[in-house]
Amino acid sequence: MGSLPESLGDIVEDFRSVDGQDKLQLLLEFSRELPSLPPELEEAAMEPVPECQSPLFLAVDTTDRGSVRLHFSAPPEAPTTRGFASILHQGLDGQSADAILDVPDDFYADLGLSSVVSPLRLRGMSAMLARIKRKLREKM
Description:
mainly alpha; three-stranded antiparallel β-sheet; Fe-S_metab-assoc_dom; Fe-S metabolism associated domain-containing protein
């Protein structure tokens, strides 16, 4: 059984504290908070995540294994996908590789979004986390 870094645990608690459409509203808030890519990073150089229903690209910077940097790119017209990316960014960016690898693969189930988001879309979040972990393992 893995564990969540405090930042990701706080996000899970935020989602647990609201119901129904308020969960969707919170996800939309996260989608608006996804940071832009740094100027030196281009989407073309990032890894696509085809499991997502909308175009999503990610980059995992493992230069410092004690503080892994995550970058995501998703179009503004894909708020659900952007919201998932933002949750992972806010919850995991800057964490150690070990802390990220320790996150349970199905942690997103604790967000309680299955009542407002399709299982297909939720699989996109699972795929993002799986790709991040795969990149970390490749670099070890």
